[in-house]
Amino acid sequence: MAYCKKYSAYSYIKMKYYSLNHNAPKVSFQEALIQGLAPDKGLYFPESLTPISSDFFDKIETLSNEEIAFQAIQQFVGDEIPEANLRQIITETLCFDFPLVKVENNIYSLELFHGPTMAFKDVGARFMSRCLAYFNSDKKGAKNTVIVATSGDTGGAVASGFLGVEGVDVVILYPSGKVSDIQERQLTTLGQNITALEVDGVFDDCQDMVKKAFLDESLNYKNLTSANSINIARWLPQMFYFFFAYKQLKSENKPLIFSCPSGNFGNICAGIIAKKLGLPIEHFVASTNVNDTVPRFLEDGLYDPKPSEATISNAMDVGNPSNFIRIQEMYKNDLSEFKKDFSSFSFTDAETEVALQTIYKNSGYIAEPHGAVGFLGLKKELQNHPNSIGIFLETAHPIKFLDVVEPFLNVKLPIPTQIESVLNKEKLSIKIKTYEDFKAYLKRNE
Ligand SMILES: *Cc1c(COP(=O)(O)O)cnc(C)c1O
Hints:
By secondary structure, the protein is of the alpha/beta class. It contains 19 helices and 13 strands. It binds pyridoxal-5'-phosphate.
């Protein structure tokens, strides 16, 4: 008798995650989410990437965003969250639009900033917080502490995504004086289960403190969880954007090039996952500011991280992009294979300012510095792909960078309601300088 596989839209498998340092046990989705980083300091990576059926891509334009997201993420969650709960988490995550706006012939801006904090990180933060709340729902009293370093937008998105989530305390570390006023307010004014630590240093200092806390055995009992883009539950849902763009552009029948303004390279890495799941993407461009570790790597094959430099696209001021190792894993460290799918270019603040003005002059579109860097990388790559459509990701609303955008474009931006609600609230932060200060804060109630 032939073996007939029972039809099921939901595959009852368990995805395992392995450490990219290959010296730690494989873990479940839940364990990878809660641990953040593996015990051997490696980032977790899914053991398999199974392409979605061609049927899905044939009818994608008829599917809702929620259905697309469910089909894309389900193999990574497996049976650890029941289908109905996972669908509910996705619905709560995707509570806003992802419009594609035509900026020039064959160039589109994919606007990812219509969420509660007006940054694309809202999607990952909302998805992760709700998964964590699901896993916590059967535990009584055991608290998780989520710690996160931010160079700009992560903090606000995590603060908003986790606000009021039961059983979770959130501690955000941000570099003093290096985030915009609106960004700072978004992460320092919420209160409740959210605390902001203002670090006398740069973003990399914040990130180092977070990494150190995870490796600190004397803090094990604190149930620390990371909400940086290294966390699989924040990183993976970012693949949705690429599916949503494809859905809107499929009828054009042209190859698609995506340019991601890149800092920690989580977003673009999720895009590559989407491609591995079968999404037809011709080429990726990682566009960076002068923090150009990856563009230099593509030129000479040497991965040589440097301390980060401050720029006007501050959410990308990252000297040692943590997700890059995941991208290398997908290309088995084969630089020539990698370069077939991927380019990376860096741009100065002066070039970014000119791009902002050019976009505005030619099409009346108001971008912000991160999107403008993405636009520049896209333009450069499109020279090699004359018949393709290019999409740059607009990762934040221009209002979040009004100090740059208003004077350069000579415009006055109306303040959206999401931002207005934090502007008059009082900033509350705790100043720290060293890892010991951070640790003392975590142990404050003992
Ligand atoms: C975080 C962020 C980026 C960089 O994204 P990565 O996934 O870290 O590469 C780009 N733009 C904005 C506005 C961001 O907040």
